[in-house]
Amino acid sequence: MSVEFSFLLVQALSGLASASSLFIIASGLTLVFGVTRIVNFAHGSFYMLGAYVAVSIVPWLLQIERSPTLFFVGVLISACVVGVLGVVMEILLLRRIYKVPELFQLLATFGVVLMVQDAVLYFWGPLDIAGPRAPGLRHGVMILDQRFPAYELFLIAAGPVVLGLLWLLMHKTRFGILLRAATRDRDMVGALGVNQALLFTGTLFLGAFLAGLGGALQIPRVSASAQMDLSIITEAFVVTVIGGMGSIGGAFLAALLIGQLQAFGVLIFPKITLVLVFLLMALVLVVKPWGLLGRPESTAGHTALPEGIMQPRGFAAAEKLLLLLAVLAAASVPIFGDTYTIKVATEVLIFALAAFSLNFLVGNGGIVSFGHAAYFGLGAYASGLLVTKLGMPMEPALIAAPLAGGFFAALFGFFIVRLQGIYLAMLTLAFAQIAYAVCFQWVEVTGGDNGIVGVWPSTWAASRSAYHYIVLVAAMAGILALRHVIYAPFGASLRAARDSAQRAEAIGIDVRTHRWLGFTIAGAAAGLAGGLYAFSKGSIDPTLLGIPLSVDFLAMILLGGMQTVMGPVLGAAAFHSIKDIFMPLTDHWRFLLGASIIALVLIFPRGLGGAYAALRARFSGGAP
Amino acid sequence: MTLLIVENLNKNFGGVVAARNVSFSLVAGEILAMIGPNGAGKSTSFNMVGGQLRPDSGRVLLAGQDITGLPPRAICRLGVGRSFQVAQTFLSMSVLENLQMALIAYAGRTRDMLARSSALFRDEALGLLNQVGMAEAAARPMGALAYGDVKRVELAIALSGAPRLLLMDEPTAGMAPAERAALMRLVADIARRAAIGVLFTEHDMDAVFAHADRILVLVRGEIIAAGTPEEVRANPEVQRVYLGTSGLRAALRARAAAHG
Q: CA-CA distance, A430 to A280, in Å (whole number)?
């Protein structure tokens, strides 16, 4: 009995240690959001940079003297270095995007994530770097009859200390009081004549400092690696969302909850701890849509013009001709192109369908999904598993793909459409990560990280050309069907709900149900695209559900112009071709992609479709 | 038959009483104004009728049917049109499309994925726009209209479901004085012609005394007076409450002078 108790105690303590670390990181994220209203994807990158800078500085300092003081001096220096990087990001990027729609903000900060990933590889190389252990805290402490690392005990204390210091800062300093005021009402603080630029820059320093501190404190526990940014950022997102965005106390509470959930969840469901965490988040958001201690977002900007599809026009004669030419070109690729070109063309068609289905949500419905790849990937897994595990032929497996995508979109969407704005985006991301985690961790069925190979089409469709035609027909049918719905009363109702949910309800539209249905349809279309992709590639793996692919889809609709109906098709073609041409040419593809996404957001936010619409308006002389 | 009966509505926010035993009724074709100082509970009572708020206790009956606590969309389908203090329209659509959307919703066809929405209910939509004098702006984007015109279109949207009752939360807020009078005349005109009951809140006392058949005066969540404009004007308690509220006092004086 006592053995069991001491074991549980140690488990609880290690839960507290991870809660502390998580809180230090999440507090920075929630602070930055509170003041700037930007959800900073790059916060995870700051954390990673904190760890990398620390594994470079701390060993060097410890060579001077192996003292605990120098260890912590090194940790603080690392955090300060990262804080300065946060300032750089604020001045160069964030300052320009405070007023743009949140989708663009998320994408721009994700661009920074991509750039930092390549920068880290460039400076520190691809191998994980183990950090030194902290002098004076290397031993274990006996707790009842269990050994517990002293450093973990130190971490347990670190969280509350940071909380206390933040509290002092927020209540006893002018800067902190302004921070709190800005979190409450940013416009009012501006109206009172506070130097906002300085306030925001200071906030970013503090936020990045906390992320860097969190990363630097991790080095005795985990090696610095180039993958630690995305794994921590999703956890930090979950903590801030559960706690209530902008609430530091809420982040502390949520970190405690999650730390314990992970510590004990691992005993009961060792494989699905990540799923438990995201389920907790979904549950909290359903009961308290603004998190445990969060405040409802003011619905300001209600009379602003929506960002997205406005008045969809039909095709003009010239556009019908263009469309015909595009279809002919796609159809003639197998005649003129080599095998590789055919493969690229097939993929373009598949991504066009996926991007179109995403814009059906984002551009037409105002539902910003940051996890659309989940439904794409689930469609791919449904097809792939049916073919490889159950020996089913391609045809029924391809029918199963949209069913799977639609089913999971309906399941997740049930929760998602209850929320709005940034909370909705976070929940789409969370559900996508659940799906990703299941595919990643359920090795016996899904093959885990490696995925499953041998997902090949039926013999009649086995040649690249034959399969290309199948995809051409299926993708075109999918796109045209979705397009038809955009012009139909249902599509108009989604736009109506996006423009003014209050008005939509007042004329009798059941907004939530319509959005749910829309989400399901988009998920089914993405699932079909995923199924088509599985057979084109011949394999499935978890990257098909990952955040990077979701971001690719978003980049496609942004590039194509999310306010246009057909733009996403153009965007998918352009994005995939560019990626295909440039990716083999450079080792720094991600850096280039990140920089391009940022450039797109900053200087070209209406995309190719927007440029075309402007051109068309100029030549027809009419209104755009 | 009485169109709307409101019985003993109560609503507290924390410790604050926003509505206490609010009761009133309204017959078809009648125009009923709800006035009172800021924070008197006008919007609270109003939103409990429209379904945006659920009362702590009390009932709302529409043509004998209990609609207490129903969601706004259900109340809309039972024949209640409404306009908002800040006009709510579909800014991405044209003026005509706004009306078509409302008519599609009224016909219960919002889940239709086959028809082309731009081809549906064009004539009906134009007819409604005609009613509010906005037919010529049919093709213009909603976002390009002046605010007074937006309010007119919103009125047309509220009328698209052939309502028995119109709820209008400060219909003239944010409008120029000349536009205010015109809009209120239009509302009164339509209501009388189609025998639609109108319940509205308003700060503009000219609009209230010129067009309301009856007036309710709310103070601190309670109705302290109700009656025709003449009765309300003569009510000493109303005078006492409003003394110092220059808008009503001026209006009372002006009216008294006009009536000799």
A: 11
